[in-house]
Each structure stands twice: as C-alpha cells, then as structure tokens.
Amino acid sequence: MYYVKAPAKINLTLDVLHKRPDGYHEVEMIMTTVDLADRIGLEVREDGAIHILSVDRFVPNDHRNLAYQAAKILKEMYNVKLGVSIKIEKNIPVAAGLAGGSSDAAATLRGLNTIWNLGLTLDELAQVATKIGSDVAFCVYGGTALATGRGEKIQKLPSPANCWVILAKPTLGVSTADIYGNLKINDITHPNTEQMIQAIKKKDFELMCASVGNVLEDVTLKLYPEVAVLKEQMQKFGADAVLMSGSGPTVFGLVNQESRVQRVYNGLRGFCDEVYAVRLIGDRDTLA
C-alpha cells in the first residue's frame, strides 16, 4: 500500500468580495498547512473498482466521499482502466473548517498520479482538483498560498513565522452553505489581506497576529454561541491571536512561546473534547 500525507489547513484570512453570477462567492483568502494530518493508503486494483476503507463512522464510503470523487474524475479524465482501494486514517476532525475531506481528495490525486503512472504535474493535478471542491486545489500544493476566485486560483506564498497552533473543535457541525447564506456582503469589515501577505513575507509574527481576519466568523458566532465562548476562552488562556477557520466551527490560536502552549491547551480541554497543539508547517516541501 502506498501512503500519502493529507495535512489540515487553517485560514489566516478569509474575505468574501461579492456573489458571482454562477452562484458562488468570490473569495480572497490566505491558507496555510498545519501539522495535523490524515493518512491516505492507496492500493491498485485490477478490477477497475474504487473502494473506500475507513473505520470512522462519519466518513462516507461511497460517491459522497471527496477522495472517491477524486479517483473517479482522474480515472475518467485519463481513461485509466485500473481501480484503487483508498484507506483513510482520520486524524483531522470531520466537518471542522480544516479542509480534511479536501486534503484527503488532494492526497488521493497526488498518490494516484504515482501508482497509476500518470506523470502529471502539480499544476495539472490542481486543474483536476477544481472539479472536486473549492479547497482541493490549495491542498494539492499545500504550503501557504493566497487563494482567489472560488478558492481554486492559487498564488504561492513563503512559509510564515514559525509558531504553535492550538486547534479546538466544539461538538457541533456547521453547514458551509448556511453560513454563506446568512452572510450580508454589504455589512462586511474586510480583513487586510495585503498586510497579511507582508507579515508572511517578513516572517513577522506580531504583524501576522494583527492581520488575521475571517468575514464568516461573525455569522457563525451568532448562529452558534458555543464557538464564541470557545474563542473567548482561548483568548483568556493567552493565545497571541485567535480566529475561526473556514466556516467553522474550529477555532485556532497562534502561540509564539512554547511555555504558554500547555497552558492554553490544558485550559481549553475543560471546555472542549477535541483540542490539538500542533506546529504551523506552511511549506510545500512537507508533502513530499
């Protein structure tokens, strides 16, 4: 079995510019990878079938699974006769705003490119990824990037200042469609995306913390007060910057001093079962 790493992402910024004629929202967001990853195992099948194997009851084992969709689309586009068994070992929380499903799909594309001997470039795989979901193209590349359009146009950025990331996911599911549906475009306070880009390029941790912003956060916090409580607690326990990732419900804190990581982590464990202390990766080379 051939194994591929599928890291989670966080949004350092997430801005919505307007609603497009095709019904999607035009976004501008900076995403980066963190050291929390699913593990995808791939094994060639001679019968041409696509099988999903997972012990996680929240992971669908049929066409609803993005990794399944990735295999099916790649197979059809390049007329591949072989099939694949896809084993998904989940570490990233499901429906958390951390792109777990998208990262699984991206890892499947990268892995199948190898075991099916397709010889595609990352740019070609990213083109395939746009047919699966908005975050999948970013996840094909990994690292740190500015994503625009629906999220599928990717502009590489250097890795940000190194730091710890505390992730906390409350026990609730959030519908991304509902969050976008409740977003009032004219009432948005837009994050300073350009300032965040400068902070990343300068590896300026303080400026990075001052530049985080997510226009979906206010919507989710109003609909799910538990997320607001979690954010307040993370700030109280001493994280340097706190933000919701994606449409939620996961909240993350950036922490510069290792001595403070355990305090924030332990404090949050009293409010939330799913808490992780991980490093910010932010570099594409870690997918190799």
From TrEMBL:
Ranges where the GHMP kinase C-terminal domain occurs: 196-272
Molecular-function GO term, any one: ATP binding
Record key words, sorted: ATP-binding, Isoprene biosynthesis, Kinase, Nucleotide-binding, Transferase
Active-site residue list: 9, 135
Enzyme class: transferase
EC number of the protein: 2.7.1.148
Pfam families: GHMP_kinases_C (PF08544), GHMP_kinases_N (PF00288)
Keyword presence, Chloroplast: no
Keyword Disulfide bond: no
Gene3D superfamilies for this protein: 3.30.230.10, GHMP kinase, C-terminal domain
Domain of life: Bacteria
Domain GHMP kinase N-terminal positions: 65-143
Pathway it works in: Isoprenoid biosynthesis; isopentenyl diphosphate biosynthesis via DXP pathway; isopentenyl diphosphate from 1-deoxy-D-xylulose 5-phosphate: step 3/6
Protein's GO biological process: isopentenyl diphosphate biosynthetic process, methylerythritol 4-phosphate pathway; terpenoid biosynthetic process
Catalysis performed (reactions): 4-CDP-2-C-methyl-D-erythritol + ATP = 4-CDP-2-C-methyl-D-erythritol 2-phosphate + ADP + H(+)
Binding site for ATP: 93-103
Transmembrane intervals: none
NCBIfam families: ispE
HAMAP family per UniProt: IspE (MF_00061)
Functional note: Catalyzes the phosphorylation of the position 2 hydroxy group of 4-diphosphocytidyl-2C-methyl-D-erythritol.
Family: Belongs to the GHMP kinase family. IspE subfamily.
Name of protein: 4-diphosphocytidyl-2-C-methyl-D-erythritol kinase
Origin species: Psychrobacillus lasiicapitis
